[in-house]
## 1
Amino acid sequence: MNLLLKNSTQGDYENESHNLLFLGNSITEGYRIPLQNSFPFIIQKKIIEAGLKYRIINGGLSGDTTENAYLRLLEYKKNIPHLSCIVIELGLNDIFHEIPLIDIKNNLLKIIRTARNQTSDIKVFLMEMKLLNDFPDESKRNFENLYRSISEEENIPLLPFPMEEIFHNPLLTIGDGLHPNEAGMAAVAENVWNSLSPYFHED
């Protein structure tokens, strides 16, 4: 099955001049909820309502790590000739797999630089990630500082973590306390849109 078509919103991205790729894991994919309730799909609706000409591609894959996402990005680049924007939502699964922070950082840098190699005017956004409260405070600080350092080094916007009020909220998660249900995903979409939309209006 063609992953691009399966995970893209309606529209022919091959003929679009403004394709926006959300490259992420289960949060982006919309784990165990209908695709139309994933936050990229909701943001596509908001973009249409705002009269903007971006076509969203949901590049979320449950369980994905930064290394695997980098390999997927190489395939996306082959199939999307007009990729004008990428939002990166990755890193939490790396922690669960005990991947060292330096490797997470290097993989994120590869993703950012690979995206830029396609076109110099591509907009790249990095989404901040945070660890659950049951991690030691030092581990949480080091993980969060990793994203801030990449944002500063690469001079790209750091979007706020969109899951702050959703983790461990039984009303907003599917039961595991981690993955958003449909109401939680609507909250994620609102958080992402509020942080991302000002950059669209700069065009």
## 2
Amino acid sequence: MKHTRLLFLISLAITLLLVTACAGLETIEAKSEAVVESSADEHMDDDDHAAEDEHGAGEGNMDHLHVEAPDEFAALANPFADDHEAIEAGEETFNTLCATCHGEEGKGDGPGAAELDPKPADLSDSMMMSDLSDGYLLWRVSKGGAMEPWNSAMPAWESGLTEEQRWQVISFIRTFSENHDAMEGAHVEDEHADDGHTEDEHTEDEHDE
């Protein structure tokens, strides 16, 4: 009898140990899965932040990194806005000094841009240019890119060009985005005209039937 009771107690103890061990194993597995999921989430967050950072400085568009212009520039307005003579003078200056990097159409794809990091801004980007005040552009042209947050190779033109010449360049580079918008509008009108022509042909075919 005593022997049977002893065996029963030993079996019960072994069963309790197994149950405890299994429960502990499940807890460890659950914690391991939680750690793996947390690591995966952190990795995805890091990837997302990296993608955002790349987009923010992406394509090297230094003017996509906007900061507030200093007070001395912030409220300035271009005295030569829409002045055709100023635009022509600015075009000549731009083609001589700026097109090598910014490209003839201001897209940041000039022959000198290939080795630059960050790349020159796309001045034909109408959304970006509409956000930039005249004072901001004068500040950037005057002081160049050798400062935070750009750290670019863009020269500072405040000593190489007069203020009037810098305003002339700004008048000209404004035309890049304006021309881009005009071309987009013409393209849409052409598509609508083509659609109208197709509808007319379809109507004529119905009449012929």
## 3
Amino acid sequence: MKRESKMKFVPLEEAHIPELLKIADAELGENYLAAEYLAKVINDKSKIVLVAIKGVKVSGFGLASILTGPELRAKLLKGSEQLPEFAGRIGLIDNVAIKEDKKGLGIGSNIVEKLISELKQKGIKEFASVAWVPANETKSNLGNILEKNGIPFGYNVENYWTDDSLAKGYDCPLCGIHCACSANIHFA
């Protein structure tokens, strides 16, 4: 894998939001993230949003949250009963999205490494993530990155986003109107 040189990773600023939304719409599903939500997380101490920038162009982003065990269980759309008990606060790698033409350059790996590092600096010792698995597949790109960073696969939840995508009106970039993709839940 060719590594992207001269890439900066900076905290989210209001000026980044329009470009992040374009990436999120293309990679996570149209309307999956909202501008209002991103504007709120800028000053939220329980959230970390890192933006990958080369020159002045946004190449991708990653979002992490700091949650308690009950908050994590409530946040999961399905499958929370299979989670282990967590001893303290948990760092949840919420989303990682990279522009299509920048994939394969190590940007996603760098974002995950930096999110984990920042979470550890905040005293987080336990981690979790919901990794998107396209319908009819078993692995996710994010899952591979998580595993390389010490957050192993825990279990799979079929049709993880179906009900949520219908209720909230976002479209899966692969499935369309409703999402039939599954999720691999990772935790350490």
## 4
Amino acid sequence: MVRKNIKGAGHLSVFIYFFLFLVMVSLLWIFRNTKAGHSLNLLLLIHDVKLFVIVLFLGGGIIFISVKLFDMYDSSGLTKNEFMEMSKSLNDASPFTLALTSSLAEEFLFRGLIQYVGGYYVQAIFFGFMHWPSGKKLIIWPVWALLSGSVFGLMVSYTGSIWGVVIVHFAINLTSLRELRKDHIQ
């Protein structure tokens, strides 16, 4: 099954991610005086700069591994072609804007709300399912998302802050989108 290219899908994706991020921030503000709201608001702080730097270095390792895994898995070029085909409809949006809005929205939703309410394993499983592809050749994508979501959840649990994983997630998305855009243009 190949997804149809929808004109303006990139802008629509940015809008949806930004709206989801605004909903998450609004919920934090509405429930700020409750015990749950106070706990979730603590995620917005950087409690320990050393841990924050460690998280960023660990995130760099995740980015490196994801690029190497993709290259190993993509020896035939089929996977990259599928990703490129799937991402064509997003070409109307800037990779930076799409990476920023998706990382903010997904981290506030998964590592913020879902991890707090449902727990570490639930957020990782939902994160993996959210990245389910349309083609069988891309099955590595939700598996890697499940593993990355697990590491991201541990990072948030260990540091008590969401910002490290937002930065790492943004870097992964930006790297991927720019690579796909570069290959698509060539």
